[in-house]
Amino acid sequence: MADYDYDVLVIGAGPGGYVAAIRAAQLGLRTACAESRETLGGTCLNVGCIPSKALLHASEIYEEAKGGHLTKFGIDFQGVTLNLDQMHAEKAKAVKELTGGVEFLFKKNKVTWLKGKAAFQDAHTVDVNGQKVTAKNIVIATGSSVMPLPGVEVDQKTVVDSTGALALPKVPEHMVVIGGGVIGLELGSVWRRLGAKVTVVEFVDQILPGFDGEVRRETAKLFKKQGMELKLSTKVTGVTVENGLATVTVEPAAGGAAETLTADAVLVSIGRKANVDGLNLDAIGLELNKRGQIETDHSFKTKVDGVWAIGDAIPGLMLAHKAEDEGVAVAENIAGQTGIVNEDVIPSVVYTMPEIAGVGLTEEAAKEKGEIKVGKFPFAANSRAKTNRDTDGFVKVIADAKTDRVLGVWIVSSLAGTLIAEAAIAMEFGATSEDIAYTCHAHPTHAEALKEAAMAVQGKPIHI
Ligand code: FAD
Ligand code: NAI
């Protein structure tokens, strides 16, 4: 052990890497974390979860005030204007506070931050900015970056990826979003609320890959009602830019007549890919899978002794909380404990309005596995949602027909992101729908809709 500079060296300080480093240090291991960005926190804190949620929150308040939605509550505004620079400044402040917070936590836990890009020399040695660093265990937590669309050049002015879309200096007149996934819908919502016309071009026949079919259909209707144009089953065949104006050529995915869309902003959001370039994985003989990701076993060990991997760089959902949980687990495994992540119970949340959340199996996937029972409850029948004039959405509980064990929960609601945690806990504890149905829920709350959906699985909801 003493032969190495560190017991644990983590490459990448995103939610996976920084959490792994802190937990390793908490467990008494001498720990360093290499990060090539100027600030800690990875994609999530710098150009992902945090700045996008800052703009989603601010644009939501703006739309409420500007759109006269508060008038019905007796609150009248006059002359609401947008100060986009200030909105960006407030976002930057949140990012700075949180990335600074990780730096503070590193100091507090005595994690050494090695500033620079790390590349393997062998399974226990990396080069960081020309400095040789050795460690008994090395954790790859290098995350992911934007998947490029062949033939479409991102200039971060007219054609942007998510990072560019978080920093547009003015509200576009027309934004074309390529890809109707999480990023496209969240950032498309931001700019629509701030005044842009938004057209989402999606290759397949539904938005939101991986989500429950009914949720995908219902939320598509809600986005359209909000004024977003959705061009489904449509592919982009080319984008040209002249004088800041893009011409986007699209045609039906199955082939057919092409048409062009003119836009002053184009957002490319067709997925993300693992960051492995520059790691020099050849030096340790670590091969990638077909999708360019690093494979691990359940303890996050790779095929190379002493090398572990977590987060967006490995298969599974590309989510910050998944990366964080894997960060804790990998550190515990390195320390000889048993770190486990239940990959079947990881919630996903889209932070639009309403929010869209799910955990566990979709109805389609559950049906493939066996017989199921489904209970649904609309927020239009939930007293708190009705009081708040906030009735869009529903809760759907999917349970095994024989055992009643909850297999999946899907929620569309202004508070879906918060409510889904209750479903995740229930599922982690192996709850049946009856367990949820007979758990007392405070009144009046949106959470009662989850209880009622569980009662609906039993065929006995009270309020519908
Ligand atoms: P990352 O956060 O990508 O961090 C990896 C770090 O490693 C980076 O800082 C990188 O600079 C560094 N690195 C890479 N290679 C090297 C090297 N060789 N040497 C040194 N350092 C290196 N997820 C959610 O759960 N909720 C959300 O609301 C959400 N919103 C998002 C919004 C956007 C716009 C985007 C793009 C993503 C969002 N995500 C969200 C996804 C989330 O950001 C990722 O799942 C998460 O950041 C993955 O964490 P990670 O630690 O694996 O990698
Ligand atoms: P995504 O995988 O969610 O969606 C990409 C969409 O683009 C898919 O619907 C796909 O069918 C479509 N597509 C692919 N190629 C296309 C083409 N050529 N033309 C038109 N459409 C095409 O990817 P996205 O939105 O880029 O997000 C990446 C990841 O970031 C997600 O997997 C998600 O996990 C994470 N993320 C999570 C957030 C959250 O948790 N709230 C927020 C933002 C990102």
TrEMBL record:
Gene3D superfamilies from the UniProt entry: 3.30.390.30, FAD/NAD(P)-binding domain (3.50.50.60)
Pyridine nucleotide-disulphide oxidoreductase dimerisation domain location: 346-454
Enzyme class, first EC level, given as a word: oxidoreductase
Active site: residue positions: 443 (proton acceptor)
Cofactor binding, per record: Binds 1 FAD per subunit.
Binding site for FAD: 53, 142-144, 312, 318-321
UniProt cofactor(s): FAD
Residue numbers binding NAD(+): 179-186, 202, 271
EC number per UniProt: 1.8.1.4
GO molecular function, one term: dihydrolipoyl dehydrogenase (NADH) activity
Domain FAD/NAD(P)-binding span(s) in chain numbering: 6-327
Cross-referenced InterPro entries: Class-I_Pyr_Nuc-Dis_Oxidored, FAD/NAD-bd_sf, FAD/NAD-binding_dom, FAD/NAD-linked_Rdtase_dimer_sf, Lipoamide_DH, Pyr_nuc-diS_OxRdtase, Pyr_nucl-diS_OxRdtase_dimer, Pyr_OxRdtase_I_AS
Disulfide bonds: 44-49
Misc. comment: The active site is a redox-active disulfide bond.
Protein name (Swiss-Prot/TrEMBL): Dihydrolipoyl dehydrogenase
Species: Sphingomonas ginsenosidivorax
